């Protein structure tokens, strides 16, 4: 009696001393494929496959081929499936469409799907999902054609019309078409969907058939169409995520890579025409959003108009992308409209609400959406908004970017905006306002800003947890805050004032600058003098931080402080006067006017003490300590920092005073005292989530470790400082920390890494106009 193929193959492999992994490697098959053959779940391998295995095992192929079971075909005659290619016949359909001749890119996806279908440990189901216009069908056809010979018993193709202008096929209608494709007469097709599915599974159980189900509406539509035979494979394309399709290998299809998009464009237009305008080609690809359908339509437009320069089409795309990329039957609008129309006409309330949300959310300029932001824009609770976001994501009308966050593709956003809906930005700004003021309350309860706010905005703030969690939320939503502020609603003025604590803690200076600019304009327009004073004060500080990037000047910063001081004096706000005088002194020192800075700092201390402003006096002494240290008056600086700590106005001031005093101890060579103060400052900064102080305290600790000769410790703390400095968005400080890292790496003999850090520091210094510091780092590089 002939030994079964699975048993014979397994015995030959063991006798050859090979594992399944080793046999797969030698034969060029997948491990899953070898395993399926040895388990007997893949019963009918191709002759070519058997010959590859025999060569890898070093045995003749004939015994293995003889062991492959013979089976009965649909018409009752014995058939040996791998002996020769099957011939097309009534029961062996060949329905695959022709592959496009300019298929480009998707190499990884093609390789993955091809390998999966050829291993066919059955049945194999692959679902290609993604938004309209990604080329799901084109990919499915390309792969199906490449593996067609692996399925000698037929290839079935069916458009399920899940996302088209006509009704989707019902499972019964779909089964009817598939059975007719297998030469079953109409009068022998059951009228019941379950019976038709059973008949379909029976027909395919011992056959090796490739089934492509294009344009599926959902999981329920395709489940009855999946055969159970071990030799069958199914490829599904859908705009739905198909997450409920158990056992399926899902392939979410993304946008093209830029080089793939250029390759597709070249295949349509020709290389010579593109090479003549490389800049315009790059702009064209960007305008297409890397969406294959858009690239193909743009290429077709150029091919049809040989007299058009690429740059001319780019100009038209910038004016109106959807109009240029639209066509009578296959334009961008048509591709997108199908999904929206299905939501609008759905019997499901969540679907209809999702269609309405699509237009409202697309109208907002923010880069992405969370449930809370979407809820504020839609006027619904965050949980309900998340349901709508998920529904839109299921249909690939939104793209999930991370847990709980979603974004629009540029072309989908443009399509959404054609509805002409206006976003509820005032509601969103009110949300940001509430959270910003809650962070202010948590960070600095004695702030004079809170006296002015009187709880007007924070009362409706959602409970996000402690200070760090609240700051983290504001940081995650900061780009959306900038976008919301640009609309200039009345809430932007108090938002700009309330965000000061966030800005000082987390940086993001350019975005904060834009919010303050709009907030200042709104405050002036509405005659809100206190808001104008606070925002001008904050703008002065932000401008100082933007000087290294060349985006502002010290002179403009000092002008903001001077105007804020006049406003607070006119309004009789002692706290505002003290705060602005402190920042004026800080700005004078940063601008290189140390003597004027000392005078302003001393005036600020006197003014705050006379007014009984405990918080103002604390900050004034911290600023004055910094200025004294800068001019070499270290003992006076220590006195001011120590007095500031004795006032003990809370963690926000303590962390700054400890940092300043630790810096002075380090400059005086008092390393133990420096480490004590700096370590405490870092610990408090960690608790507050104050990224700037976290970075500076650890940078100082690294310097102390270097001075002690402990470069291992210096390397550890400076690495942590660098990570925090980069997140704080302070390029000058990042350069300083990289410089320190480079010096410790040199001391440890790690020259290659050291050179990389030093060169990065030099590059940053050059970029922000710090020529002297760049030259100092350059001398360090050359000396080593």
UniProtKB/TrEMBL annotation:
<keyword id="KW-0802">TPR repeat</keyword>
<dbReference type="Pfam" id="PF00931">
    <property type="entry name" value="NB-ARC"/>
</dbReference>
<dbReference type="Pfam" id="PF13424">
    <property type="entry name" value="TPR_12"/>
</dbReference>
<dbReference type="InterPro" id="IPR011990">
    <property type="entry name" value="TPR-like_helical_dom_sf"/>
</dbReference>
<feature type="repeat" description="TPR">
    <location>
        <begin position="618"/>
        <end position="651"/>
    </location>
</feature>
<dbReference type="InterPro" id="IPR002182">
    <property type="entry name" value="NB-ARC"/>
</dbReference>
<dbReference type="InterPro" id="IPR019734">
    <property type="entry name" value="TPR_rpt"/>
</dbReference>
<feature type="domain" description="HTH cro/C1-type">
    <location>
        <begin position="9"/>
        <end position="64"/>
    </location>
</feature>
<dbReference type="InterPro" id="IPR027417">
    <property type="entry name" value="P-loop_NTPase"/>
</dbReference>
<dbReference type="InterPro" id="IPR010982">
    <property type="entry name" value="Lambda_DNA-bd_dom_sf"/>
</dbReference>
<dbReference type="InterPro" id="IPR001387">
    <property type="entry name" value="Cro/C1-type_HTH"/>
</dbReference>
<protein>
    <submittedName>
        <fullName>Tetratricopeptide repeat protein</fullName>
    </submittedName>
</protein>
<feature type="region of interest" description="Disordered">
    <location>
        <begin position="76"/>
        <end position="95"/>
    </location>
</feature>
<dbReference type="Pfam" id="PF13560">
    <property type="entry name" value="HTH_31"/>
</dbReference>
């Amino acid at each position: 009696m002939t030994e079964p193929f699975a048993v014979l193959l397994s015995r030959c492999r063991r006798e050859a001393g090979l594992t399944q992994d080793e046999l797969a490697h030698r034969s060029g098959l997948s491990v899953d494929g070898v395993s399926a053959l040895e388990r007997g779940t893949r019963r009918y391998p191709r002759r070519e496959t058997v010959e590859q295995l025999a060569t890898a095992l070093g045995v003749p192929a004939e015994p293995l081929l003889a062991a492959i079971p013979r089976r009965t075909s649909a018409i009752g005659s014995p058939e040996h499936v791998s002996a020769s290619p099957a011939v097309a016949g009534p029961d062996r359909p060949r329905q695959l469409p022709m592959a496009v001749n300019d298929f480009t890119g998707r190499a990884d996806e093609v390789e993955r799907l091809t390998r999966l279908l050829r291993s066919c440990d059955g049945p194999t189901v692959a679902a290609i999902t993604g938004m309209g216009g990604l080329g799901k069908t084109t990919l499915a056809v390309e792969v199906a054609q490449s593996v067609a010979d692996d399925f000698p018993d037929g290839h079935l193709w069916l458009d399920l019309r899940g996302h088209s202008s006509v009704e989707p096929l019902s499972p019964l209608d779909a089964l009817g078409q598939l059975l007719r494709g297998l030469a079953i007469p109409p009068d022998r097709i059951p009228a019941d969907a379950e019976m038709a599915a059973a008949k379909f599974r029976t027909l395919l159980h011992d056959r090796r058939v490739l089934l492509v189900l294009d344009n599926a509406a959902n999981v329920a539509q395709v489940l009855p169409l999946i055969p159970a035979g071990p030799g069958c494979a199914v490829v599904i394309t859908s705009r739905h995520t198909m997450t409920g399709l158990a056992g399926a290998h899902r392939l979410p299809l993304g946008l093209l890579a830029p080089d793939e998009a250029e390759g597709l464009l070249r295949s349509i237009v020709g290389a010579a025409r593109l090479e003549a305008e490389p800049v315009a080609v790059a702009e064209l690809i960007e305008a297409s959003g890397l969406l294959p359908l858009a690239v193909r339509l743009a290429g077709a437009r150029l091919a049809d108009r040989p007299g058009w320069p690429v740059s001319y089409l780019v100009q038209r795309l910038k004016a109106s992308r959807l109009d240029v990329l639209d066509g009578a039957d296959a334009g961008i609008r048509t591709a997108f409209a199908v999904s929206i129309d299905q939501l609008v006409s759905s019997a499901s309330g969540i679907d209809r609400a999702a269609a309405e949300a699509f237009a409202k959310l697309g109208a907002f300029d923010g880069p992405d959406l969370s449930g809370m932001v979407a809820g504020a824009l839609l006027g619904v609770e965050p949980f309900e908004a998340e349901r709508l976001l998920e529904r839109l994501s299921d249909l690939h009308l939104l793209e999930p970017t991370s847990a709980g966050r979603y974004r629009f593709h540029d072309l989908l956003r443009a399509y959404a905006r054609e509805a002409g809906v206006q976003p509820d930005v005032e509601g969103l700004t009110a949300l940001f306002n509430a959270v910003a003021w809650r962070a202010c309350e948590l960070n600095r309860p004695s702030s004079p800003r809170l006296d002015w706010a009187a709880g007007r905005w924070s009362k409706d703030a959602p409970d996000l947890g402690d200070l760090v969690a609240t700051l983290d939320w504001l940081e995650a939503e900061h780009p959306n805050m900038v976008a919301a502020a640009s609309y200039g609603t009345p809430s932007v003025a108090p938002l700009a004032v309330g965000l000061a604590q966030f800005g000082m803690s987390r940086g993001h200076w350019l975005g904060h600058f834009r919010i303050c600019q709009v907030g200042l304009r709104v405050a002036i327009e509405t005659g809100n003098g206190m808001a104008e004073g606070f925002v001008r004060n904050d703008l002065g500080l932000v401008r100082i931080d933007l000087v290294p990037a060349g985006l502002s000047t010290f002179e403009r910063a000092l002008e903001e402080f001077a105007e804020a001081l006049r406003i607070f004096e006119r309004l009789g706000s002692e706290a505002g006067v003290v705060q602005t005088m402190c920042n004026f002194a800080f700005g004078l020192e940063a601008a290189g006017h140390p003597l004027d800075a000392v005078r302003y700092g001393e005036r600020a201390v006197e003014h705050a003490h006379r007014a009984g402003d405990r918080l103002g006096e604390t900050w004034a002494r911290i600023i004055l300590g910094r200025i004294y240290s800068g001019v070499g008056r270290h003992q006076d600086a220590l006195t001011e920092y120590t007095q500031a700590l004795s006032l003990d106005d809370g963690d926000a001031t303590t962390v700054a005073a400890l940092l300043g005093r630790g810096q002075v101890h380090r400059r005086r060579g008092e390393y133990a005292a420096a480490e004590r103060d700096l370590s405490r400052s870092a610990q408090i900064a960690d608790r507050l989530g104050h990224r700037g102080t976290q970075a500076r305290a650890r940078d100082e600790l690294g310097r102390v470790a270097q001075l002690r000769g402990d470069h291992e410790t210096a390397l550890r703390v400076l690495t942590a400082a660098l990570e925090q400095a980069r997140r704080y968005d302070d390029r000058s400080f990042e350069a300083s920390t990289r410089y320190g890292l480079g010096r410790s790496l040199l001391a440890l003999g790690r020259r290659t890494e050291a050179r990389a850090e030093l060169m990065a520091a030099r590059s940053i210094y050059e970029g922000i106009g710090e020529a002297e510091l760049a030259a100092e780092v350059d001398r360090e590089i050359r000396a080593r």
